[in-house]
Amino acid sequence: MKKLKNVLKSHKALCFFDLEGSQYSHECIAIGAVLATFNKAGQLIKVKPPFKVYVKPKNKIGKYVEQLTGITEDLIEKEGISFSEAIEKFFVYIGKYEKNTLFISYGNHDMTILGQTIAYNLDAPLNKCSIIQKNYLDFQSIFNEYVKDDNNNVLSLIHACELFEVEIEEEITPHDPASDAILLSRLYQAFLTRKDILFTRYVKVLSSLNNLPVPIQNVVNDLYEGQNVDQAKYYQYIEEAIKDI
User: What's the whole-model pTM score?
Assistant: First the structure.
């Protein structure tokens, strides 16, 4: 996949990460990550054990987020550290790949959380935060070009994993940042290796595109339904499209 390979070629490691954010101020309250090396085909080789740290926000977490993530004010009080400390620990985890890592999340909301948290923390390590921002990939944006749900909508991470038959153990907890980072790394790998599933879903996505010229859309629909389309049929669709102009 050329688009993905072009992004990967200037990096030596991939960091799949997830940030959990507070309800109203969208500050980071937890960081989860999985670091991996990859081969020339982009497939993962070595996957490091996951990283997780809780972060103390400047504002309240919010009841909805507490219920969704299980991250409470009490938990943050007991186990949370400052954002500056959390980023420093994060980069210790990344280690020697600090300047050669591509940071990957599922959806760009993580970058909104990062930006908001920097704004609330005057002591934020801007040099390290900048490394994340400059070497970032929203995997969902690539995935969404080829795979959507049956109603042509974006899939959540957990539903995307289920579709690609990704292993999900009982201890994997939705909205836990380390669990989400693990699932994202597995989805990435499945996206590259399960060409059978990718092919089937991409065919369906192509048949559902609504911005194609009408004659081409008709051809695509016929092919998706198993019909053969020759040049005469294609020209017929073009004539029908222009006859009322």
Answer: 0.90
